[in-house]
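Protein Record: Sequence and Backbone Structure Tokens
======================================================

Structure line: whole-number tokens from a learned vocabulary of local backbone shapes, matched to residues.

Purpose: to set a sequence beside its fold so the mapping can be learned.

___
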Amino acid sequence: MHVFVTGGSGQTGPAVVTELITAGHIVTGLARSDTAAARLESLGAQVHRGHLEDHDSLRRGAEAADGVLHMAYGGDFADPDDLVRRDRSAIEALGQALAGTGKPFVSTSGTLVTRAGRVSTELDAPDPGSVAAFRIAGERACLAFADRGVRSSVVRLAPTVHGPGDHGFVPALIAAARRKGVSAYIGDGANRWPAVHRRDAAVLFRLALEQAPTGSVLHGVGESAVTIRGVAEQIARTLGLPTASLTIDEAAEHLGNPFLARFFSLDVPVSSDHTQALLGWRPEHATLLEDLATGDYFTREASARAEEIWSAH
């Protein structure tokens, strides 16, 4: 299969591109910059120049392919309406190019669109009051192409996709612990957080392209319910620091970011049982706590990168 991929040079994208090429697929990746193009070429992918708001370029890339995987997501997080507009319009441009072909179209969302405080499944509708409600419009736009002759599906990724080079939420906790001299959690720290190893997520994206039934919602979750206190305690062990319970206001100051404090206060367990049964997907790589014990999370470079990224949000 010749797959057109957006977001192939991002954090999760290179693992997905590698997985597709290793499985025998041909990959063409969307590249906005010379750096992105060089990254894609180094992975063995072809390069298609363009960006998410260049809809003509998106349509050309999709028309030339046997399937599309949309992972890119960009814009100003301080302007959620712009995020929604950019993502939905890119999805519509890609889907229109596939209409009536029966080709696969896999788009990416996040499990944080589900309702907090319970174990959510793939069969649960997204919650308009969720912290990631800005992803719902993109989900709906992709799935709507199921009625237009496209084998469309959505992969909801766990909020923590871990592995080498992670610069997401967990490195922000590590950077704050280093800066403040204490590894913190909110309240009793029993709130649950899903996670998936990047290489397991890459396999899921490949399986979705190859065999996901039309209209499927899939959960990219290897672990349903890692507690934030467990994460904080592993960070403390590695850095030789104490742990502390904070209020959400104290956590906002500790992390230097109210947005992160709100995220880490959420109780958002998610099941992937339906996805595993549907596609035969079996997460088999390291757990989040194993990665924290043996991975590269505690390099000074990783903390500096996290500080740089989250100070901009």
Notes: The longest strand covers residues 104-110. The CA atoms of residues 183 and 236 lie 5 Å apart.
